[in-house]
Description:
The complex is a heterodimer.
Chain A: H1 3-33, H2 38-58, H3 63-88, H4 92-113, H5 123-128, H6 148-151, H7 156-174, H8 176-184, H9 186-191, H10 196-235, H11 241-269, H12 278-296, H13 303-307
Helix pairs in contact in A: 1-7, 1-10, 1-11, 2-3, 2-4, 2-10, 3-4, 3-10, 7-10, 10-11, 10-12, 11-12
Chain B: H1 2-13, E1 23-32, E2 35-45, E3 50-54, H2 61-68, E4 76-81, E5 84-85, E6 93-96, H3 110-116, H4 119-122, H5 130-142, H6 158-171, E7 176-180, H7 188-203, E8 207-211, H8 218-221, E9 224-229, E10 231-237, H9 238-241, H10 244-251, H11 257-267
Parallel strand pairs in B: 3-8, 3-9, 6-7, 7-8
Antiparallel strand pairs in B: 1-2, 1-4, 4-5, 9-10
Helix pairs in contact in B: 3-6, 5-6, 6-7
Amino acid sequence: MSGAEFVPLSLTPMLIGVCVAIACALPGNFLVLRKQALIGDAISHVVLPGIVVAFLVTGAVTTWPMLLGAAGAAIISVAAIEAVRRLGRIEPGAAMGVIFTTMFAGGVLLLEQSDTSSVHLDVEHALFGNLESLIWLDATGWSSLVDPVALAGLPVELVRMAATLVGVALFVALFWRPLKISTFDEGFARTIGMRTRPLGLALVIVSAIAAVAAFDAVGSIIVIAMFICPPAAARLMTNRLEHQVAWSVVFATLAAVTGYVLAGYGPLWIGYVSSVSAAGMIATVSGVILAVAALTGPHRLRGGAAKEI
Amino acid sequence: MTLQLATKDGSDAGTEVGRDAPLQIKGMTVSYGQKPAVFSVDMTVPAGAMTAIIGPNGAGKSTLLKAALGILKPLAGQTLVFGRTLAESRDRIAYVPQRASVDWDFPTRVIDVVLMGLYPKLGLLGRVRASHRAAATACLSRVGMEDFATRQIGQLSGGQQQRVFLARALAQDADLYLLDEPFAGVDAATEKAIIAVLKALRDAGKTVVAVHHDLSTVPEYFDRVFLINTRKVAEGPVEEAFTIENLQAAYGGRLATAQVDQLNGTLG
Lengths: 309, 268
């Protein structure tokens, strides 16, 4: 494939996929270790009605109203979970399950009832995004990467996702030690003066920002997959958190690139004419990576896990 | 001014119960739901002693410790550490949580856990230098775990895990050591090793407080006892406060006759 074809059509979706995958996998490492992995799942579900309402109010798919709508939906969800838990007297996990599915279903109903035909916002978009359409029309080949005029025409989603990734990476790098210590031993962390609750909240907020920023480009399926699959697979490769996070970045990148290529060209290789959803294929590849790691990873049988049986 | 304060601290450290006692808990009340777990407990721990917090299961021993350290939010109560607030004296406290309170499958090595004790010195981004590693390794040596530095923590036995936790506390280089059931589920060799380290700390002028379960070892291990059953039952030197009457007041019917007989033997 020549640069003239690859750069405008495939480079930017692939880069966006990589940014999304890493931005979700980085905080996902800590969420998985804190046994809060489903928060990624939860966030990507509850924000849907918020995003739809933001669209209905502003009439356009723009970043800030969507982020605000998503944040509003998240706050309402937290309050609703607490209310269901207390008034309904049921356990927190069940309360979360009820609210997440209700919020997502409500979002889907809103989408179906509203006129979103003018923009790319519908149920399928909510699940799978529109990664393939985020092409770079101003590019003519590899030389465009150093051409300021062409660079100005980069899809806004790539810029937004790259900025999100930088923000997420800075958060994880800056608060690496508090995150590590408080994830391992929260009681100890408090006694040395760490504010573990605000830190835990910040981790969830950073995850939410990554999820919402990714939502528009790639939909909720990939977000859910990337929060859990790369970190879970990485845990099976090493017994050190530093190495685990590095592995998770490798796996996230691998899933995004391989998934995109397989979705675009895989069906052609086996004789079909049309390609399949890139987001769906990226999520599938990340699941396959986890499966392979579970079967062959060097640290899949660990002392701590096996001893209790 | 600073010099005066320093002199004052120095002279008060030797007194039995000064205003600057290593640990003073006042009116501590903690509740889980409707039921108080700890009710209006006062406690004063003098310097250079080893104090056991004892009481039946569910008496609020761990809860008292956690609330005093600000890990749990009390309904009421105040903690003073060397006469200052908790926030002002963080670097003088080392806390060893119950071993079972953490997930030992966490991806980290023994040496990394001990280095966590140096976090207040390292800060957010300070580089871990050879001197820090040497200090952490020295702490591992004090608990006989230096050969395990690069092991994953999940590969350790319960006793070894407890020693690593103690090494982390040693790395904090504190003046007040608070331990929550340090002997729970550990082997006899570890128990001996831990008590030797704690006694060495006491002999170096440090203050040790431990939640303790095994009544038979109290006189051998500790200088002072604090008996609790939601409320404070008794507090003082072992020979004065560790009496059958106080134990029965704390444990009620839960102290079996056999145990009383055994304790009669222990107490002479």
